[in-house]
Write a sequence for this structure.
């Protein structure tokens, strides 16, 4: 009998369908849920409006219910300490450094496809399966595992998965990668999955209602860290002072709302400077850039190129990948792109194939 497959069950419809689908095919399935953050921490941030977060206690309850319905073994894994060290603390430090982090990518890199694989081995599983909308295939000619975008481009999650290694890809299944989200919900109903109509999670699990600045203040207080002297100036690209703000961590490149500056035209955050506590704001066209540097590049589907290559590059999850030339760590776009944001990911594509990605400097 083949070894079991460990399914990362988040309590949502996608991972529930993965477990149900593999179970219906006769696979030996073990359900594992990762406990990442104690939702009772930082009670001052809690509110009745804090909905749509992933990995809540309700999600654990839903995942357990699906496992019981399917009759599969189920365990909850406590990764809270690792999650705090690898995701939460870098999230806080990056914002304070004037960058805009992606905690979901950090979680994928250091928790879901790292520690989770190790824990899966501990229960006898050689492979894991998740509800991510992405695809994996093996290229016999190159000998490499390749990642491709999910068929449902509106749900494609490859932007957050650029850090996966060849070993991780070889032991991972994405059963939903070739499906539309609507078909997944229909299949959930057919399988009798109780989460068939459950809404998708939208918020970061440890940040209620998307209030990043509020979380940073509350977390710093809990940790006994004195809040930095964050007050500073709004300035134009020419250095003219337009007003004051309460901290660079409250702003991200491209932001328009919440500036509190009256002007005859819309103004946007052009850049943030933590060293001087200055936030430069200006017109929309002043956000355009033709190039950027990308650090810690992970080449997935191809070996690291020794010469410049052409690719389509995404600089945000909802960004339409734009044609560019990649030379080492330098990316030069054919046409200027709006709001190249330090701390965000730059992910390289060739059509549906995910070549690799890294972090915008």
């Amino acid at each position: 009998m083949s070894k079991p497959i460990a399914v990362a069950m988040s309590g949502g419809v996608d991972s529930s369908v993965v477990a149900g689908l593999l179970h219906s095919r006769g696979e030996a399935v073990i359900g594992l849920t990762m406990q990442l953050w104690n939702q009772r921490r930082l009670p001052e941030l809690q509110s009745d409006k804090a909905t749509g977060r992933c990995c809540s206690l309700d999600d654990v309850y839903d995942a357990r219910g699906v496992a019981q319905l399917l009759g599969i073994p189920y365990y909850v894994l406590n990764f809270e300490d690792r999650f705090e060290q690898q995701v939460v603390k870098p999230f806080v430090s990056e914002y304070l450094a004037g960058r805009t982090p992606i905690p979901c990518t950090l979680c994928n890199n250091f928790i879901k496809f790292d520690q989770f694989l190790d824990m899966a081995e501990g229960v006898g599983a050689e492979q894991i399966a998740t509800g991510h909308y992405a695809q994996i295939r093996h290229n016999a000619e190159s000998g490499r595992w390749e990642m491709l975008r999910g068929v449902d481009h509106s749900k494609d999650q490859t932007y957050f998965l650029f850090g996966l290694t060849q070993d991780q890809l070889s032991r991972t299944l994405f059963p939903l990668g070739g499906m539309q989200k609507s078909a997944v919900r229909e299949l959930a109903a057919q399988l009798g999955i109780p989460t068939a109509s459950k809404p998708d999670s939208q918020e970061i699990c440890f940040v209620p209602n998307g209030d990043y600045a509020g979380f940073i203040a509350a977390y710093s207080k809990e940790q006994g860290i004195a809040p930095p002297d964050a007050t500073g100036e709004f300035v134009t690209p020419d250095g003219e002072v337009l007003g004051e703000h309460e901290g660079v961590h409250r702003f991200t490149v491209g932001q328009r709302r919440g500036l509190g500056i009256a002007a005859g035209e819309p103004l946007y955050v052009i850049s943030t400077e933590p060293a001087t506590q200055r936030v430069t704001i200006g017109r929309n066209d002043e956000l355009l850039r033709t190039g950027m540097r990308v650090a810690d590049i992970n080449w997935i589907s191809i070996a690291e190129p020794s010469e410049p290559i052409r690719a389509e590059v995404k600089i945000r999850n909802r960004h339409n990948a734009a044609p560019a030339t990649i030379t080492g760590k330098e990316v030069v776009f054919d046409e200027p792109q709006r709001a190249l944001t330090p701390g965000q990911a730059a992910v390289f594509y060739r059509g549906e194939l995910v070549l690799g990605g890294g972090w915008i400097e």
